[in-house]
Amino acid sequence: MARVVKFYETGAPDVLRFEDADVGEPGPGEVRLRHVAVGLNFADTYFRSGIYPVPLPSGIGNEAAGVVEAVGAGVSDFVVGDRVTYTGFTNTLGAYSTQRLISAAPLIKLPEGISCETAAAMTMRGLSASYLCRRIYPFQGDETILLHAAAGGVGLIVSQWAKLLGLHVIGTVSTEAKAEVARAHGCEHIINYSHEDVAKRVREITNGAGVSVVFDSVGKDTFMASLDSLKRRGLLVCVGTASGKIPPFDPAILARKGSAYITRPGLADYIADPAEKAELVGELFGHVAAGRIHIEINQRYALEDAVQAHRDLEGRKTTGSSIFVI
């Protein structure tokens, strides 16, 4: 009997329920997967709270790593015993579980040297960092970026990847402890947004020029500061809304901010093409396996502690990556 986390109504973390489930045998195109570790991502809170609506009741989580236990008809790329990881969106929802049935399509074989725990901590975050650094903007090196939530899971990977590309990283954090973590992973300058004016400090650091790109996963609280930090014709990449949704705005403001650009990308659109996904996966796994990018797992939870894990995540008590260990 498997154990799963589900929710029957949207709301605060305590809507999550830990219960038994009968997994059964895989159907055509499916595998039965025994999870070893499950990723905890801020996007999970969007499903739970209703920001991302799904039919209820619903499982939760869309990133995990484990071992293939059984394969269904038509599955030829995987065999029993393969170590795999996956991420997606609604097509992989239900990762908070000890076992599950899942389509073989989103599965990624794990190379030797990358553990299931590391994979669960980096597949979504790492692929997000991969497309942000390699697809979203034509970085030429020796450019400066502003990275909000620099001590978070995606932030730490982006910081390290940016340094590999020759970029200069200004990171924002909320505490001195998080500042130390961000510095250790490549941030040259730190802005503590709890008591510093972000845009003003960016202008000071860049001698008035501003940054080429802002990666903003905070949303409502940082939107205007992000726009005000851009150089002329810079790009604001809205990759999350941890503080709430960005209010509606008049696009004319982009002209007033130096003909700025703005985009709200989603990982699913950068891994939809199998060839592009394979390229991003290969580059990510290569950097991690070679030690050029280090994955920080700073929080480990039991699956039955999902409520507390979500409270910690939303309370900004975490740094780096968080996982559930099965």
Automatic annotation (TrEMBL):
CDD domains: QOR2. PROSITE patterns: QOR_ZETA_CRYSTAL. Residues 11-324 form the Enoyl reductase (ER) domain. Signal peptide: none annotated. GO terms for cellular component: cytosol. One of its GO terms (molecular function) is zinc ion binding. Keywords: NADP, Oxidoreductase. NCBIfam families: PRK10754.1. This is Quinone oxidoreductase. It comes from Rhodoferax sediminis.
